[in-house]
Amino acid sequence: MQGLMQDWPLTCDKIITHAKINYPGREIISRQVDGSITRTTYGEIYDRARQLSSALQKRGIKLGDRIGTMAWNNARHLETWYGLIGIGAIYHTLNPRLFPEQLKYIVGHADDRMIFTDLTFVPILEAHQDGLPGVECFVIMCDRDAMPETSLRNAVCYEDLMAEGDGDVSWGRFDENTACGLCYTSGTTGNPKGVLYSHRSNMLIGMTAAMGGALNATGSDVCLMVVPMFHANAWALTFTGPMAGMKLVMPGPMMDGKSIYELLESEKCTFSAAVPTVWLMLLNYLEESGKKLPHLSRVLIGGSACPRAIMETFDKDYGVQVIHAWGMTETSPLGTVSHIEPEIAHLPYEEQLSYRLKQGKPPLIVEMKITDDEGCDLPRDGKAYGTLKVRGPAISKAYFGGEGGQILDDGGWFDTGDVASIDPLGYMQITDRSKDVIKSGGEWISSIDLENAAIGHPKAAECAVIGMPHPKWDERPLLIVLLKEGESATPEDFKEFLTGKIAKWWMPDDVVFVDDIPHGPTGKISKLDLREQFKDYVLPTV
Ligand code: ADP
Predict the structure, then answer these.
(1) Is there a catalytic annotation at residue 439?
(2) What is the DSSP string of 420-474?
């Protein structure tokens, strides 16, 4: 027997329509490329997204077409997404930090018909447009009077394109499983692979992120959306924001500590989300300037492990609650969130912290388990660690174009490439990425744990640990440190600092100081580049 409830496809046009009806005047604030601040509302975003949809339809854009966006977080970018989403076209976020070869590959593979770009990226696209032959036209997201001289093919100013439309368009009216957005994973091995989100998966992840056990998003929140829209749907905030009626503040290109602080302060932001690197820059700025954070109540930290020092400093010095989360492009991306649940609420601070620093528990729509090398399930005892596998309605079942072939096992589980444990309370903890874990004498050393211990050193700005070949132990850890400006230190200083904080046999065999630590396209430390950089290095213990 079927239920007798209405058929209401979960298509994402309904999200911005909801915001238009219920929170029309709630603001979206954007930092533009030139540093200026502009203000708009959900009402205006909706109207302009419809206008854009009609303009795109007049140019022949239709259901299923892929359109690239190379843009910072700003109102035009959000408008563009919803303008595409409404007519069933697919936003394809392009990470501007991609290498030219990757960019050409991705745009070609996705068969993007148009590219929307912020002014910042016009020179990059000009230089490489010959390698993007399928792109019919480039839309430059600026005011008319800021429109640059450009050699980009069929370049059109965003506002001129907008003026071609009349807002006469019908949105939705397609199946909820229709493709909605496309985002390629960085692909540390082989070519980047396209994760193709559906309307239904985006709707579900947006609702999930809003829940109390996740971000607890409400219309009273003012959200500084630092995590870029090209980084896995800005962790669902592009959907959760308008669903919950959050005022959104978009930092554009300026993500240094001072700029982030200015927006947190001037817009009285209550909530924000970003990778640890951004928070390190903010905390350094606060320390130097003596500023405080009177409005901010909680921050979401994910993308890589949250160091203990960041959580403690936010807690103790600024009274800001850190919510640690784990996910990946393939998980839309919210996979787990770490919260203080009743079972740990009474624990002393230090003990509680060790739970909060874990990656946490999955929401309803994510099932999770760990397995050994033979694929057998491992116990949830907090000790056993193995391959982390997930399944659910907002998790990839294949990559765009069938790249990578079959990616689920017989049980429908997706292998995350992470190594993790799950404790009896259900908190998952990432040990490491399987390719980064250091295999020493048959045992595993977590590079994440070592980095997080080392970053607590007051002179360290950033730390990375990689495994180096060792004839006796197979691999041993090398600690790579970028010191804070003007500081100096010796390897012994760091080893002394680590003593007692890590198992004895985890002690790095050497500590080297560098002027720069390379980052990948989503702002995370690039172990791949570090391994390349240190390929001729020999440990003193060899
Ligand atoms: P990439 O980093 O390759 O660009 P993703 O953004 O999809 O692609 O990264 C997902 C990976 O990031 C996860 O598989 C995991 O290794 C790592 N990650 C994400 N969040 C966390 C976290 N809170 N703690 C530790 N690792 C994390």
Answers:
(1) yes
(2) EEE-TT--EEEEEETTT-EEETTEEE-HHHHHHHHTTSTTEEEEEEEEEEETTTE
Looking at 3.20.20.80, 3.90.1150.10, 3.60.10.10, 3.40.50.12780, the CATH number of the domain 13-26+35-209 comes to: 3.40.50.12780
As a CATH number, domain 438-533 is: 3.30.300.30
359 CB within 6 A, ligand 1: yes
Query: Average model confidence (pLDDT) for the chain?
Result: 95
542 pLDDT band, cuts 50/70/90, is confident
pLDDT band at 283 (very low <50, low <70, confident <90, very high): very high
CA atoms within 13 A on the CB side of 319: 7
Reported in sequence order, the residue ranges of 303-353 that DSSP labels E, i.e. its strands, are 321-327, 334-338
Tokens of 346: 């009474």
* Residue 188, pLDDT score: 57
Checking if the pLDDT of 38 tops 70, the result is yes
Q: Which two tokens stand for residue 376?
A: 């057998």
Going by CA atoms, what residue is nearest to atom 10 of ligand 1?
Answer: 328
Q: State mean pLDDT over 96-113.
A: 93
Residue 173 backbone zone (phi > 0: left; psi -120 to 50: alpha; other: beta): left
- pLDDT for res 153: 97
Q: Please state the atom number of ligand 1 nearest to the C-alpha of residue 301.
A: 23
User: pLDDT, tens digit, for every residue of 405-438?
Assistant: 999 999 999 999 999 999 999 999 999 998 899 9
Q: Which residue has the tokens 């982390």?
A: 388
Measured in Å, residue 275 CA sits from the centre of ligand 1 at 10
- Domain segments of the chain: what residues? 13-26+35-209, 438-533
Give the number of other CB atoms < 10 A from CB of residue 221: 21
Ordered DSSP codes for 12-61: THHHHHHHHHHSTT-EEEEE-TTS-EEEEEHHHHHHHHHHHHHHHHHTT-
What CA–CA distances, in Å, run from 536 to 41, 470, 516? 55, 13, 18
User: What pLDDT shows up at residue 89?
Assistant: 98
Model pLDDT, residue 277? 87
Ligand 1 atom with the smallest distance to the CA of 417 is 14
Cα separation, 82 vs 88, in Å, equals 10
Q: Mapping DSSP to helix (H, G, I), strand (E, B) and coil, where does residue 335 land?
A: strand
22: left (phi over 0), alpha (psi -120 to 50) or beta: alpha
pLDDT at 189: 60
CA angle, residues 119, 284, 279, in degrees to nearest 5: 60
- Could you tell me if the CB of 331 is within 6 A of ligand 1? no
| Sequence-separated (6 or more) residues with CB below 8 Å from residue 231 | 95, 303, 522, 523
Q: What 3-state class would DSSP assign to 501?
A: coil
pTM for the model stands at 0.92
Please classify residue 458 by burial: count the beta carbons closer than 10 Å to its beta carbon, then call 0-12 exposed, 13-18 middle and 19+ buried: exposed
Query: Mean pLDDT throughout 162-173?
Result: 97
Q: Verify cis geometry, omega within 30 degrees of 0, for the bond prior to 333.
A: yes
CA atoms within 13 A on the CB side of 479: 31
